[in-house]
Design a protein that fits this description.
The protein is globular. The protein is of the alpha/beta class.
Length: 376
């Protein structure tokens, strides 16, 4: 993005910074306006010149790439979770910045936090995930060792916390204006979707079964519950059948329950990591025919093949790598078209991804990332 374009967004920066501080519970006086708090309300400071971060989730690398031209240069260590950003995106990063391959690796979010591994990497700041990063005691131990922790969240409550998290990342690395610009870009698109969804009565909202990582194990059926991907379904005007029985952000449904609910829309998530399992594969390393074949296998399984959504041509595949990071606005647009095709026929998620690639991302997404199941 040009410096001229960024300067036009200076007003947005002030608004985003103020919103992030207020949302994090910061009550700043005039003399404290530069103070920052993370999503747990803990005070944090921007990186000093030359300071580096550790990140416990590869998707934070994508977020950094939205607001910094060389995100790898900011890192002392990362989770090494290649599948979360996709092997093809990892290859694109390492082609541009080979140093990523040699970076120290720490446990990724969702795994037990390893204090020693983080300290050994010598970051100036540890960026960690809410609800799966260090305990309060471990965060205190980090701070006592001179490595404060900053908690962010792209996973549990994406619509509440992603913009706040990106604004905080921007403030920490001196790229607040760039973070505000992307948050404004995304908010405009989400607001347009929300306005149309608000016109749909609850009883007219289709039921949806979204199966994350479909076929990653032989049994069925992974599902979002309350929060996480379930929030995407709610946001675009669907009724997530998993939320009626799963109170956590994710869990597993009985196949019999899925058959009994007989959802109006079926969405499988997949990606390169499902190649060995024969599931839905998508991305620049796969042809449309390969994606279609994998989606057909997923939708053709016992029980799933009999669902109304599959019979009536409302079965789809979505790259799991499009969710749980700020670029999930593309996934939101895709899901809106699938769940309410009558309302959102004018949406063009491909154009949105192209604009993100052109205006923001240091490493663009190549290829396709979703598909519709074709009739046999």
């Amino acid at each position: 993005m040009s410096s001229k374009s960024l300067s036009r967004r200076s007003a947005l920066l002030a608004l985003a910074s103020a919103g992030a501080l207020t949302a994090c519970g910061q009550t700043a006086t005039k003399s404290e306006k530069s103070a920052l708090s993370d999503l747990k309300g803990r005070p944090v400071k921007p990186l000093a010149q030359g300071g580096k971060l550790s990140i416990d989730d590869g998707r934070y690398l994508i977020a950094l790439a939205l607001i910094h031209p060389d995100p790898v240069s900011l890192l002392a260590a990362w989770g090494g979770d290649v599948n979360r950003i996709s092997p093809d995106m990892f290859a694109a990063f390492t082609e541009k910045w080979p140093a990523l391959k040699a970076l120290p690796k720490i446990p990724r979010s969702g795994e037990p936090f390893n204090l020693e591994a983080v300290l050994a990497a010598k970051p100036a700041l540890a960026v960690v995930s809410m609800d799966s990063g260090p305990s309060d005691e471990q965060a205190g131990q980090l701070e006592a060792a001179g490595v404060p922790a900053a908690f962010i969240d792209f996973f549990n409550h994406p619509f509440q916390n992603q913009a706040r998290s990106l604004a905080l990342l921007g403030a920490l690395i001196g790229r607040s204006e760039q973070a505000a610009a992307f948050n404004s870009f995304k908010k405009a698109r989400l607001d347009a979707i929300a306005a149309k969804v608000a016109t749909v009565p609850q009883e007219r909202r289709p039921t949806v079964f979204l199966e994350p990582h479909a076929m990653i194990t032989p049994d069925c059926c992974n599902s979002p519950g309350k929060g996480n991907v379930g929030d995407y379904i709610d946001f675009v005007g669907g009724r997530n059948i998993g939320a009626d029985v799963l109170k956590a952000p994710s869990g597993k449904l009985n196949l019999e329950y899925v058959i009994q609910r007989d959802p109006d829309v079926y969405i499988a998530t997949g990606g390169p990591h499902l190649k060995k399992a024969g599931g839905f594969v998508v991305g620049p390393d796969f042809t449309p025919e390969q994606s279609q074949a994998g989606l057909s296998r997923v939708a053709g399984r016992r029980g799933i093949s009999t669902l109304k959504a599959v019979r009536e041509g409302r079965a789809h595949g979505l790259s799991h790598q499009l969710i749980n990071s700020p670029i999930d606005v593309v996934a939101v647009e895709v899901m809106a078209k699938w769940i309410h095709p009558d309302l959102f026929g004018d949406l063009n998620p491909r154009a949105t991804l192209d604009e993100i690639n052109t205006r923001f991302l240091a490493v663009p997404y190549r290829g396709d990332y979703w598909a519709d199941l074709k009739s046999a």
